[in-house]
Write a structure and sequence with these properties.
heterodimer; A: about 400 residues; alpha/beta; Aspartate Aminotransferase, domain 2; Aspartate Aminotransferase, domain 1; 2 domains; three-stranded antiparallel beta sheet; disordered N terminus; B: about 375 residues; seven-stranded mixed beta sheet
């Protein structure tokens, strides 16, 4: 007897990918990205033939390079972006009885990482402009049990970290940045990780800097934390045979580090293309009364992991664009406080009105480095046709 | 020094060459498909693993530790509970218990260097929720007896099969005796991928459903999360590696069994070997021998080009991670193993000359160091 796990539950992605693959202008650009896979194979073979599969030199080299790119002291490669957040919280001693503040509008893993430490996620609503934590609301949510804040740099737009640091210091809180969208992003010239205990990045295949599977990395400027995190990601081992504390297995695979290192060369190009495409869309979409873009700020280098905006008749527009072969996506339709898993937190609709509004109105368009100006024009033209038909 | 070695402890590069051409094509396909996580390779690999292990479900995860950890979580084991395991295993067997908030309890091992059923029975308390018997080094433990004792006390059995893919007990694959089995696909395992990887076998549909959510953020579909979960998935590329190697595993395990036979025949009566239950068909992830002068033997072998390892020099209960909670002497057989066991090279691409070279040098050392 055997069963297909996908028939039971969970392996839902293949169907989604198949559907998306029929579109012409796609969020998923991986096919084009790895056209030069032979060069990558060559580098991977180097690792393979040395039997150097877990941690090892390629991981060390990449960690140093990634830290350098973000002007951080230490980088610790881990199994995924989710694990980066989870291990950071563990390293800071956060667990049952503690509260951690985070926005309800984010990917599941931000909150999943908090909840799986045993701590209680405490939501604070987001701002309508930028979809990041509303810093004005944070202090009201702080209780004697609050230990940390996990801000999310949504779509690669860094929060006001200076002000958040002040709030955290005043209340003796730690900051673990969810920088999964924010590779290369800056605010006032500073990268994620500059003002926090740790910054957590993801190399999931659809991220700006990606690998061929799951991967993540943690940046920190604290030697103590870097030491602790290196133990936590590798069974607590200080050497092959000595275990100083019982801990997890969450390592960045060596072959994935090779791929990430390879793509680092291309990162400036990737980032610039995303910025260029986003500015182009901005310049045309700003004239639509039905669309609300974020205020673009001089002191921010946004890296547009997602190009997302608020729009009227979102679901109809999304469907219309998809019928045109444009992979319009919703990140994400249900805020975290309304997910079945959050039931024990006792929230209801209306608790975080901005997050709920964003979930109802947000739409993302592909802006990756393989999108052409013709494709951008086609997206703009299609949106225009949709709204023209509405008002006609 | 390594240049002089002519029997390395492992030779993964040689395994890679066996699958190289197919693998490069597959990776190219995956690259072009644009789907790198939870896709077709992973789905097929899970079906093939379930077939291979004779289980209803195989669920791939990020590594062998996660395999056991996610099962414990799925069973609701946590703070206030006790879980029993063997102190001579790799420390992840105990860590996964600590990670849930439960307390690891140990019992001593038998002459098979696996969990001793009697010692296990004595370690059971009213708080014991589960036992994790380890099929150490690919040698199945006395699993039927352990399951019998566990059932009588209403305790769940989760088999640690990290080192034992393909091993059977009474003709049945390990991983099917308890509620679930946790396997590792770490590069050094008999079936190893090119990085971290693992999977779980179970015949319990409800458990399988829970595990499929827990490994992927608790998601039921792209947008709906039913429980707080983890991110613990096997990459598509790694699944492709696993699939290609799985085709060769029977052949590889057969060759490894041949080598083990040669070792056993050559050493029988001359050197202290761990025994195993007659019902067990091991897959010899490691081949252990015992010697009073283990460290000297290791040095002697290295001088003669034979690389060896110790699994494991510090038993789990004496690791610093346990903060002196236990003392030396608590589990004498496990401690004896830590002090006296040596693992000889054993892998499918070893030549007969290499095997003979190991045998000759081991016997020479024994001859020079007669008790």
């Amino acid at each position: 007897m055997r069963h297909e796990s996908s028939q039971v539950i969970g392996n839902f992605l293949p169907e989604q990918y198949e559907k998306d693959a029929q579109l012409e202008i796609n969020h998923n650009y991986l096919t084009s990205q790895f056209f030069d896979y032979k060069e990558i194979f060559k580098r991977i073979e180097g690792v393979v033939l040395q039997n150097d599969f877990t941690l090892g030199k390629a991981v060390d080299d990449f960690e140093r390079r990634f830290a350098g790119l973000h002007q951080a002291e230490y980088a610790i490669g881990v199994g995924s972006g989710s694990d980066a957040i989870f291990l950071s919280l563990k390293a800071l001693g956060i667990g049952p009885g503690d509260e951690v503040i985070t926005p309800p509008f984010t990917f599941f893993a931000t909150v999943g990482a908090i909840a799986t430490t045993g701590a209680t996620p405490v939501f604070v609503d987001v701002e309508i402009d930028g979809f990041n934590l509303n810093l004005d609301l944070i202090e009201a949510a702080i209780t004697p049990r609050t230990r940390a804040i996990v801000p999310v740099h949504w779509a690669g737009r860094i929060c006001d970290m200076k002000r958040l640091r002040q709030i955290a210091d005043k209340n003796q809180l730690k900051i673990v940045e969810d920088a999964c969208h924010a590779v290369s992003a800056t605010r006032d010239g500073e990268f994620a990780g500059a003002l926090s205990e740790t910054a957590c990045f993801s190399f999931h295949p659809l991220k700006n800097l990606n690998v061929w599977g799951d991967g993540g990395i943690i940046l920190t400027n604290s030697f103590e934390l870097s030491k602790r995190l290196k133990l936590l990601r590798n069974h607590g081992l200080v050497s092959r045979n000595e275990c100083h504390e019982f801990a997890f297995n969450s390592r960045l695979d060596t072959i994935q580090a090779v791929i990430a290192d390879y793509l680092c060369d291309k990162l400036p190009e990737i980032t610039n293309a995303r910025i260029r495409n986003s500015k182009y869309l901005d310049s045309h979409l700003k004239d639509f009364p039905q669309i609300q873009l974020h205020t673009r700020m001089e002191n921010l280098k946004e890296v547009y992991h997602l190009y997302s905006f608020l729009c009227e008749k979102r679901d109809d527009l999304s469907e219309f664009l998809r019928s045109r072969g444009i992979d319009a996506k919703i990140h994400y339709p249900t805020p975290l406080h309304l997910q079945p898993a959050a039931k024990h937190l006792g929230h209801k609709r209306g608790d975080f009105p901005i997050a709920e509004r964003v979930s109802n109105q947000v739409l993302s368009l592909p802006v990756h480095e393989f999108i052409t100006t013709e494709q951008l024009d086609f997206m703009i033209q299609s949106i225009k046709e949709f709204y023209d038909a509405q008002t006609a | 020094m390594p240049k002089l070695l002519n029997v390395p402890f492992v030779d993964l590069g040689a395994q890679y060459l066996e699958i190289r051409d197919d693998l490069l094509n597959r990776i190219d396909e995956i690259g072009k498909s644009g789907q790198y996580v939870l896709g077709e390779e992973c789905r097929q690999f899970e079906l093939e693993l379930a077939d291979f292990c004779g289980s209803s479900f195989a669920i791939s995860v990020a590594n062998g530790s996660d395999a056991l950890f996610l099962v414990l979580k799925s069973l609701g084991i946590g703070p206030g509970d006790e879980v029993i395991t063997a102190p001579n295993s790799f420390l992840a067997s105990a860590w996964v218990i600590v990670a849930t908030g439960a307390v690891p309890k140990y019992c001593d091992v038998d002459s098979y260097h696996n969990l001793d059923p009697l010692s296990f029975k004595q370690a059971i308390t009213s708080r014991t929720k589960a036992v994790i018997p380890v099929h150490l080094a690919g040698v199945p433990c006395d699993i039927e007896k352990i399951v019998e004792i566990a059932n009588a006390s209403n305790i769940q059995v989760i088999e640690d099969c990290a080192q034992a893919i393909g091993a059977t007990f009474n003709g049945r694959h390990v991983g099917n005796f308890g509620i679930a089995g946790g396997f590792s696909l770490h590069p050094l395992k008999n079936l190893g991928v090119m990085g971290d990887g693992g999977f779980i076998t179970t015949n319990d549909e409800q458990l399988a459903q829970k595990l499929l959510m827990l490994r992927n953020h608790g998601l039921k579909n792209r947008d709906e999360m039913l429980i707080w979960g983890y991110n613990s998935r096997l990459d598509e590329v790694q699944a492709a590696v696993g699939r290609l190697k799985l085709r060769l595993l029977k052949k590889w395990n057969k060759r490894v069994a041949e080598i083990a036979d040669k070792y056993r025949k050559a050493f029988l009566g001359r050197i202290d070997l761990p025994n195993f239950p007659t019902e067990s068909r091991p897959v010899w992830h490691n081949f252990l021998i015992f010697h009073e002068k283990r460290d000297e033997m290791r040095e002697y072998l290295l001088e003669n080009g034979v690389d060896t390892r110790i699994h494991y020099p510090i038993p789990i209960h004496l690791q610093i991670g346990h903060n002196n909670e236990f003392s030396a002497g608590d589990f004498p057989k496990a401690e004896y193993q830590s002090a006296h066991s040596l693992s000889l090279p054993i892998y499918p691409t070893m030549s007969n000359e290499q095997v003979q070279h190991v045998v000759t040098n081991v016997l020479e050392f024994c001859q020079m160091n007669l008790p």
